[in-house]
Amino acid sequence: MTTIGGKALIMGDNVNTDVLHPSRFFSLDDRTVRSGFLQAAAGYEQVGGSDLAGRVIVAGENFGCGSSRETGARVFLLAGVRAVVARSLARIFSRNVRNLGLPAVECPSLPALAPDVEVELDLVRGRLSVPSESLDLPLTPLDPFWAAVLHAGGLLPFLGLGESASAVTRGASLPMYQGMP
Amino acid sequence: MTAQTLTEKLLRRNVAAPIVPGSEFYRIPVDLVLGHDATIALLIERFKRAGRRIWDPARCFFAADHFTPPSTPERADILNRYLAFMTQESVSQDLAFRGISHQLLVEDRRCQPGMVICGADSHTVMAGALGSFACGMGSTDILALLLTGEVLLAVPESIRIDFEGTLPDWLFGKDLALEIIRQLGEGGAVDRSLEYRDLTTTGLPMDSRLSVANMAVEAGATNGVFVPDDALRSYLAARDGSAGPLPGFEGAWLEPDPGAAYVQHIRIDLDKLRPLVALPGDLSRIVPAEDAEPRAVQQVFIGSCAGGRVEDLAAAARVLRGRRVAPGVRLVVTPASQAVYRACLRNGIFEVLHDAGAMITNSSCGACGGIDKGLIGAGEVCVSTSNRNFRGRMGSPDGLIYLASPATAAAAAVTGRICDPRTVLDDRCLTSFHQDPWPAVRMIGDAA
User: Fold this and answer.
1) Does B364 fall in a domain?
2) Nearest Cβ partner of B140 from A14, A65, A96?
3) Nearest 10 degrees: CA dihedral of A133, A138, A142, A144?
């Protein structure tokens, strides 16, 4: 699967992992981890607890800055989020999300969007489209390493060290994506 | 060969071909991997399913610092799973319960200049103060590292940061770290290295350098590294004593090449810097303490890997000597390691803090990570020497966290309000905060 469509969940700039997933929800129990999603993000507490299956997170600059706690990335999988798009991504967070097989990509020209707007992410063409706004925006090309990791379904399957935690991009021909404008 | 930055030199020593054609990512062998009870626990089940052993248990620097002692039955269970994993994989438990992993690392001879160090915690970057490449990662990256001995990294471009001028008594590494973030912004160094040079007339104390490197990640940096100099040499000589450098790292004193390319060059003149505070919520609003609204505070926290060393606790003691914490304010003091704890016991710092009304806890991550021993409630204001003031970080999302130096934090404890520490310094205080350039290592050495 190389095209990921869904309802956007719009977030702002410098959203850190402590607000995305407060440390009191750190746990080895997935239900506890899931219940912590967005519980310190002002105004997002309710949506964090709601059904987010199929949603695409659309955020501003430096999304996911802060802690390396991987529960803060795993919770995106547990919530059913299908992809993360941001104007820019924090380093450790973007690695964590991609390592789990979930696409996290950058779209530097991303404008402010209306809440819950439908977006479509084409990882082969390297475009983010917003049909209702007639927008078709370029994504920053993924390094071929990350394209290969997503193609494999995560870092462990890429290295032959374990199975994929996510089926969102597994098998996608993402290496094609390299070099696309 | 083109001129290289220090980080390029540290990472390119053992690098061959890219992982996949056309990629900027390389397999990089790792000298030391840092772990602790919380984040290693997240990988144990997947590790077992891989059916392999840790590539080199002797290179695992595993502490137990988050749930120590545990505050809930689940955390006791997590801690015990972690300890059992260490036993099974023949990883030493000598470091467990001895303090915060990042501080234990820089106190330990196993951490040497020239190394590549990766850790399952974002503040692993602090070890860059000792001239190594040190970088934090999530549990899946660390799991792959434990199985293979390698990490997959792109070599970052560097931002050069020069400290110039003279360090006044009332300025600390925390003020310098906040000034860097004020200039770069929270995401201003993402996928970049910060390369620090100490060009000050007085020299920056090692404890302050550690606080600076600790917060490289708060600007988004991959790593932060101090260019090795005589001050580092003295620190290591005092730390390692007659044992000397670790075999294999005797000559690993790398320096950037003259003419190396930097994407940005920042000069920080300490003669022009005032004590700073980060206003609550995130690190986007950093202002001089004297310009901040003098809000009433309910808690002051002096601790964490960013602000719980001997220099920090000594600074607090110097402000609090002969004084009492303001009524209604709780002062929580958490030494960063047991060696720091013991040094503070021996040299009278704890006596001063105790007499002033401080609550002194065991060495652990504690209040900084909102784990235990000093959480804040809705509407409360906390001044903290830690590294993150994020919403909800230390408890209620409706509590407010200010970040500041130990002197500024102690001044808030005395006055009950956010204030500039220079307003409370008088003849009761020991005036020279930095009279001994390396108080920590010498006192730790004395205590050992």
Assistant:
1) yes
2) A96
3) 120
Show the 3-state SS of B274-293: CCEEECCECCCCEEEHHHCC
Amino acid identity at A102: L
A156 close to A70: Cβ distance less than 8 angstroms: no
Q: CA separation (Å) from B131 to A86, A134, B112, B444?
A: 33, 51, 8, 21
A18 contact residues in B (CB cutoff 8 A)? 370, 388, 390-393
3-state secondary structure of A103: coil
From A120's Cα to the closest Cα of chain B, the distance in A is 26
What pLDDT is attached to residue B251? 82
- Domains present along chain A, CATH in parentheses: 3-177 (3.20.19.10)
Shortest distance, CA B320 to any CA of chain A (angstroms) = 32
Domain range for B339 = 276-447
Please check whether residue B37 is in contact with residue B82, taking contact to mean a CB–CB distance below 8 angstroms.
yes
pLDDT tens string B136-168: 999 999 999 999 999 999 999 999 999 999 999
**Domain of residue B293, CATH code:** 3.30.499.10
Predicted structure pTM score: 0.95
CB contact under 8 A, B391 and A40: yes
Token pair, residue A84, equals 């993360």
